[in-house]
Amino acid sequence: NAGTATIDGDDVTLNSNTQLGDFKLELNDSDRLELSTVDQAEARNVDIAAGATGTTLGIGATDASTATTIDASGYATGIGTIELLDSNAQNLTLTGLTGTSAQTIDFSGSTAAATAQINDGTNRIDVVVDGTTSGSETITYDLSSANAAWATGTNLSTLEFGSKAASYDYIITGAQDLTLNGGNAISFGSDGQRLDATGLSGTLTATLEASGSAGTETFDVNLGADGTYDLTASSTETSGNYNLNLTEGGNYAVTLAGFDANDSLTITGATVDVTNLNSGTDLGGLETIELGTNDLSATAAQIDALTALNA
To answer: Which of the residues 34, 104, 175, 285 could staple to 158 if both were Cys, CB 3.0 to 4.6 A apart?
Structure first.
């Protein structure tokens, strides 16, 4: 290693012509450093000074000409925030990040498709924010490389999406368990925005937060029969309504809390069994069921609860 370059400035952006060679970088208290090129960021050791807090490392790839992967394994877990920034309209992937709830990974300034591969030993989750197609922007939690659970507050980093959180669709896939609550709660703000968990065969435990501006927005929550779901509609919901869509036939294992009479349940699977929804006691406060021509199996207690709500 050529030595250590210490950053001493509240907000420093390296010029794209800056050559760092093999220098290690160190951030002081409250410093923000933005790396502008692939060479500046690739396999770079970036640490923080003893006792430093409030540090931020921005990763740009303004010189990228194709999809670019950057080895981020040398970025210290003590860095407060890691930002994925401008990648010259090319897909950008950071590999080797270590999951910790004390660190925020910020996609607010990302362009094209930005991926953070977050690791906990051999366990990995890929978080992909893809804004390349207008009208089909997505935030994906990909558990296909996971071999154990991921959870807010333990091994999952805090994720910041900025304004994208209130408009991008959420997709969750894979066979492991995922907990999204607290700072990683799923946020809805735009009419028609959806959470698609039909590709999940593990357990999703999630808090849903809605803040539509008009008050008439509908937010779709699509569930498949292979997953298990524990969903809570947050008390911070200010406006908008949820439509829970059971998309395929099968027996659904679902726990619902915090939903109300303005939210609804739609059955699009041919034969759906909800006797395990809230352990068969009720339908989670949902007042409306759209059944269409499909078949629904429910308990007597669930029917009684639905009848009482519609009395």
So the answer is: 104
Quick one: which of 232, 113, 116, 220 has its CA closest to 170? Answer: 220
CA–CA distance, 197 with 254 (Å, rounded to integer):
12
Distance CA 178, CA 172 (A): 9
Residues 146, 195, 102, 70, CA torsion sign: positive
Report yes or no: 20 and 44 within 8 Å, Cβ to Cβ.
yes
- Type of residue found at 297: S
Contact 121, 145 (CB under 8 A): no
Task: Quote the distance between the C-alpha of residue 210 and its chain's center.
Answer: 15
Instruction: Give the SS3 label for residue 164.
Output: helix
Q: For the whole prediction, is pTM greater than 0.85? A: yes
Angle, alpha carbons 50-61-122 (nearest 5°): 60
Tell me the pLDDT tens digit for each residue of 189-215.
Answer: 999 999 999 999 999 999 999 988 888
Q: Convert the pLDDT of each residue in 104-132 to its tens digit.
A: 999 999 999 999 999 999 999 999 999 99
The CB density around residue 225, as the number of other CB atoms within 10 Å, is 17
- Residue with the two structure tokens 């990683």: 184
Q: CA angle at residue 64 from 162 to 184, to 5 degrees?
A: 20
CA 187: distance to chain centroid? Answer: 9
pLDDT for the residue 236: 66
